[in-house]
Amino acid sequence: MEYDNVTFMAYLSAAVVAALLTLTYIYQFFKEQKTAIFAPAAAVHTLNLLVIVAGISQPWPATHWTFFFECLHYNIWTLSVYLTLKASASNSALPRSLKILFLIGWPVTLFALVASATQWELIFSLEAWLTLSLAVIGLVSVEQLFRYAAGNDRQIKLLCMNLAALFLYDIYLFTHALIFQQIDPLLWQSRAAVSIATCLFMALGGLLLLQRNDRPANFTLSRPIAFYTTSLIAVGVLITILALGGYYVRLYGGNWGTVIYSLVLIGAVLLITTVFVSTTIRSRLSVLINKHLFRHKYDYRSEWLRLINYLAQPAETSEANERAFFAVASVTKTPGGAIWIRKQGFYEPVYQSGLPSYIDLQEEPVDSPFCQTFLQSEWVFFPESGDNLALSQYNEYLPPWVHNIPDLWLLFPFIVGDELIGFMALTKPVADASLTWEDLDLLKTMGRQLASYLKRHQQAEQLAEGRQFDTYNKLVAFIIHDLNNLIAQQALVVRNAEKHKDKPEFIDDAIHTISNSVDRMNNLLKKLRTDGKDLITRLSINDIVKKAVAECWRQKPMLTAEISDDIRYIEADEVRLVMTFTHFIKNALEATPDDGRVHVTLRCDDHEAVIAIEDTGSGMDWDFIHNRLFKPFETTKSGKGMGIGVYLSREYINDLSGTLNVISAVGEGTTVTVTLPVTQE
């Protein structure tokens, strides 16, 4: 009775796992995988196991339908193999004898159907011989499938190995039965365990290797094969341990076989479900295998091809930073980070991903010890290095804003030649956040490649701007030429007008009009000329700000100002400096509704003057400020100007050794802060 209970649970468990295999192949059918053709074979295999379960209370030879379903499941497996071979090769490529071999089993199956339906009492040896023959035919068909269709397909190769194991065990089982004229009960029980193992391996392979049929299946120790093989071996070891434990308990007493097989069943279902839904487990297993089975942590060929594939895709200048970030993220498996690029004496954040919205990424001066360490030592900063002196020796140079980034993992530089283009910050990866010499070398190599990539995009952008400025300079040259002609004509009118002194009213009006035109055109010419050194004078910064405010106040009285009484001086072109402040104030007024507020503040100390222009207007987003605001010939004012006002203002502030900072939030307003060096005398 105990034997029947164990056998019943064994074959029931095998049927459940075979049903899972059937579902796997049905799932592959919807994914258009060619191994889905084995779904009917897996279903018939499941049905065969259920028939054995149904007739478990009688000896095997007395169960007539068991013989039929045994023959049927062999033939369905063989038919699926044949159809796969036809899909992989032309009919002429398959030997004629092989086609005949695939047809031999069907007459045997038809004979078994008639015998089962009429309940013929067949000789045990006849049934054993026929079943053994079908198992041999199945094994031969699997060998042909492996030879003709499994060369470049890992799913087919895994399927062949498991089917071969299944058929080989059946050949051994029925050969043993023919020799001893009876089926050994323990071998018959173990057949269920073989079915559980092979079906489980095929199901896991069908899930893990899904949509990877284009990759080669050579028996070399590559990383993907090591990953999947290790997973399958671990499952096999688990099943073997459970089976041996159950056998030991059964041998020395106790009725624990049912419990053991139940555990196998539950474990198989849970294992398949977990592997199917959990990417974290697969990534952690991949890290474990890379650490302990390979000399190198990374498959450098694959990682380099992945990086080049990201960078080789055509991208606009605004997309270059995003592409560079995801190229690194695909290799390091990091969920977030940011990129800083050098702009006008500072490294400015130009892209961020996966970081909280409240994080304020700040600029970093070019000459800071942090950036100099990047450049001089090509150093990779690891903020949470702990007691590792080798990784933390330069951590005292980390700027304070670094610690505001949650889960920060490391920062590494972008260096091309002797120039630090920028740097990148990465957050901790999910699987493994430790650092080895391979990580450091790979990051430095990627940093140099990305530096060349970003530098090339910067140069392309500068070239495009240079071409635009060439067009602008040509336009200016034409304007200057036309104005010179106009001035000459007006001067000639002035000289000829002296001949008509008999008409004093005409003469006075004409001379006044012409003189004003000449003055205005001369002023325009001075502004258009590039060499304005003769226009530089010593100016009071207080008076300059007052003039700019007074000029803009005539447009909208909502403008207010708070100007320091401490008089400070600066050497500059009065017209250009007033225009610089006027431009920012007018922009603030245009962006602010009539019920809003624009306020100008001037604060002075011994060496600096700080001019702040605050408004409660529409504001700007982070991307617009860092990637579009200061680009020449880009304007949001359709039909108004050439879009170079902010660019020229920033360039003139840089010429005066000053700094410009813009802080804005959409819907809340903008604050433009200009800092200029000044003197007391």
From TrEMBL:
It is an enzyme of class 2 (transferase). The chain crosses the membrane at residues 6-30, 37-56, 62-85, 97-116, 158-180, 192-210, 225-248, 260-281. GO terms for molecular function: ATP binding; protein histidine kinase activity. One of its GO terms (biological process) is phosphorelay signal transduction system. PROSITE patterns: HIS_KIN. InterPro entries: GAF-like_dom_sf, HATPase_C_sf, HATPase_dom, His_kinase_dom, Sig_transdc_His_kin-like_C, XrtA/PrsK. Coiled coil: none annotated. The keyword Phosphoprotein applies. It catalyses: ATP + protein L-histidine = ADP + protein N-phospho-L-histidine. Its EC number is 2.7.13.3. It comes from the Bacteria. Keywords: ATP-binding, Kinase, Membrane, Nucleotide-binding, Phosphoprotein, Transferase, Transmembrane, Transmembrane helix, Two-component regulatory system. Residues 478-680 form the Histidine kinase domain. SMART domains: HATPase_c. This is histidine kinase. It comes from Marinimicrobium koreense.
